[in-house]
Specification:
This protein is α/β, with parallel strands linked by helices. The chain is 40% helix and 20% strand. It binds S-adenosyl-L-homocysteine.
């Protein structure tokens, strides 16, 4: 790692620590963690990190020192940027670790492989794509996000965490899916908290290679949405494959991973424009 990455997170900022008075307890704890950053790796497991590590253990993951530092830095940058750009409603560092990082990593319960080309549609501040990239650095990742300011954050983070083979693109799924370089080319397409299952299938299936997977984290009562999703899937060449319950430290509110397999090529007409999708949803 270069000095840039190893240094304390505030070092390159013009306003170290941000606006302490306005941002509340969340950022205060984040600053405590910032101090821990400068101490040897074992100390990093204190503070907000411990419950996160327990969850990782349940997933069979053990972080290297570099990965621990990347997650801490990610958390700090997220909370810092969040005071200026609307990235997340979660401002408690411990909750960031569990509800964003661990929740993102739970996708490994549905898919894991030494190599993969992963697409994250409507990634926002990088979820679930970037936490997955940190623990699976050999994967190729495309982060797709419609809001420019969020893409600026993602690009800053990719640079700061020194991540390779990850690109953040500012655009809409319904446009990019029609470009030859992206169509049918991903092993896995995912999207968290973006839209309903029929629309997710219409967005994601065109990007997926034959035999590839579409994985959507969801929670709540899905009976009707899932039925519509199954009908939509048949229209875009996908088939329902699995419904995996996620129960990890701090994540016991009925989270599930809905998994679909791309069986046939998605017809060229999909995805339709946003307007048509809204007026005539699949399923
Ligand atoms: N996946 C993130 C963000 C969810 S908010 C998380 O779980 O935290 C939904 C995000 O999807 C927003 O940032 C929005 O800009 C983006 N989005 C919505 N529709 C989109 C589309 N058609 N193409 C690309 N991004 C989209």
């Amino acid at each position: 790692m270069s000095e840039d990455f190893d240094g304390p997170p505030g070092a390159k900022r013009s306003k170290p620590g941000g606006n302490a008075s306005n941002v509340g307890a969340g950022l205060a704890l984040a600053r405590e963690i910032q101090t821990a950053w400068q101490t040897p790796a074992p100390a990093l497991v204190n503070l907000a990190f411990q419950p996160f590590l327990e969850g990782l253990h349940r997933l069979g993951l053990e972080l290297t020192e570099q990965q621990s530092k990347q997650f801490l830095r990610y958390q700090l940058e997220l909370l810092d940027w969040n005071t200026r750009v609307n990235l997340t409603s979660i401002t408690n560092p411990e909750e960031v670790m569990i509800k964003h990082f661990l929740d993102s990593l739970s996708l490994l319960m549905a898919f894991d492989a030494p190599e993969a080309r992963l697409l994250d549609i409507g990634t926002g501040a990088g979820f679930p794509g970037l936490p997955l990239k940190i623990v699976r650095p050999q994967w190729q990742l495309l982060l797709l996000e419609a809001t420019g300011k969020k893409v600026a954050f993602l690009q800053h983070l990719i640079e700061t965490l020194q991540l390779k083979d990850v690109v953040a693109v500012n655009g809409r799924a319904e446009d990019l899916a029609h470009k030859a370089e992206y169509r049918g080319s991903f092993d896995v397409a995912t999207a968290r908290a973006v839209t309903s299952l029929p629309a997710l299938l219409e967005y994601a299936a065109p990007f997926c290679r034959l035999g590839g997977l579409l994985i959507f984290p969801k929670k709540g009562d899905l009976t009707e949405e899932l039925a519509r999703g199954k009908r939509a899937a048949s229209q875009v060449g996908a088939r329902f494959k699995a419904d995996t319950a996620v129960t990890l430290t701090g994540l016991d509110d009925g989270r599930r991973l809905l998994v679909w397999e791309q069986m046939n090529r998605c017809p060229e007409q999909y995805p339709r424009s946003g307007g048509v999708m809204a007026k005539k949803p699949l399923g």
